[in-house]
Amino acid sequence: MRHTFSRCIIRLTLSCIAMLLTGTVASSAQVLLDKSPKREVRAVWLTTIGGLDWPHAYARSGSDIESQKRELQSILDKYQRAGVNTLLIQTRIRGTMIYPSGFEPWDGCLSGIPGKSPGYDALQFAIDEAHGRGMEIHAWVVTLPVGKWNALGCSRLRKCNPSLIRKIGDEGYMNPEKTETADYLADICEEITRNYDIDGIHLDYIRYPENWPIKVSRQKGRQYITRIVESIHRRVKAIKPWVKMSCSPIGKFDDLSRYWSHGWNAYTKVCQDAQGWLKSGLMDALFPMMYFRDEQFYPFAIDWAEEAAGKIVAPGLGIYLMSPKERDWDISIITREMFYLRACGLGHTYFRGQFLTDNLKGIYDFAANSFDATPALVPATTWISSSKPAPPHSLTVADDTVCWQPSGSRSVFYNIYSSRNYPVDIEDAHNLIRIRYGQTCICLPTDGGRYYAVTAMDRYGNESEALQQAQKITVGPAEGKLPMLLCDGSRLRLPDAAAQNDANVWLIESLQTCPIATRSPNTSWIDVSDISCGTYILKSLNSKGIAHRVGFFEIRR
Fold it and tell me: What is the pTM of this model?
């Protein structure tokens, strides 16, 4: 039995605790929103098995490929607006892949035909698109389950490695007690790490199957599972030490002194020493599957927080349980859990992607418009490297662009901050407007009322000192300069020139160029009362789909 002392509860005010546990709408909730953390993992599991989250149509022609790509782009746009900064994409599914592997065949989710290429590298495309939106992307590798006994993935493995596969019911599983299993899974993770610019390897089902006839001691069983983790860790870190190692353990690590896990836990039931892996450095992050509520959630969340050893923990939330086809949970169950995790210094992960983008019971609106409306950086892995990169230099702000010179030869991204106060406070998450940006120029509203700062950030998440804008920009009537449009907080006024153009539709984008809303062009005023406060870009789209920037505007209330 494990003992847990509620240190993170002590950190909460009594009013905050009351709000979290009873669901009372209180000022404490607003306090947590106002203090949105600058660093926090906000992740989502994007499930590809059976095309559950993506793709929803097969790629069997050039137009099909483009359609499949556009669908993923649309999904990622929505994730970005909801504040997601970490994408866990299912890469190895059931002995099958979403990329051209030298070890296993294509999964059928892409082409509709198991073993057949969809005509493009889906993993590479996802990496490019995620990175373009400032997101980390982790390759989600399903480890031991290899699918139905006679399905392609399982049958191929049985043919090539017959001693590694065991049958339970009508499913095949890799045997965790064989050293060859550890080597084979390490081969796969090495292939992914070597060939792709991923940010993490995310291991799923790295545990004994619950119906496996374990004939060894639990201690020995944990040693077998840990051996697999060690093999993968060793291969991955030897190639790219910044690539995060993570897994999705059972949501309750073990029984607590006052709370029973009802026989379903990571450590005792399925020999998964996830907290030990954090402490020993084998794992950099955990995404525990906490698809529970009430006393089966809160005490176990505290346990994860207290045993995190300074590493990253972002519990998975069962948003699918809000579905009437599941348990029909009220959204308040999930939102209380999100507030609680943030108060405990933990991140949050949605399971699964489509329930988020479908806005089940308003969960997407809650994330995008309030809880995660401010961007966040992923916590730095300072236990691997804590050396800060050099800052960029020569910041210029003019003609609606902010530009700077690179910080040096070290591989870095850039974070852009903006404020109406000088110097820009880069510790205030509300000033973050673009994260993990890969270029050295960005289009932004240089209206004279804002200041800018830029930092460099390396692959470990270490951030440089800020390069601050040297002085306030004075805006004159320079020809061609995009205007700041008049907005009273509810309505946006279009300038006469814009009102006379050939716009078929108005497109409103965030400063991160993420689409926010569209509006009809048949009026000189645009209703923006349903859009949250912030600074936005207005574009016109003509009948040919060509976009033109009209101006910037700021919503204040």
Answer: 0.85
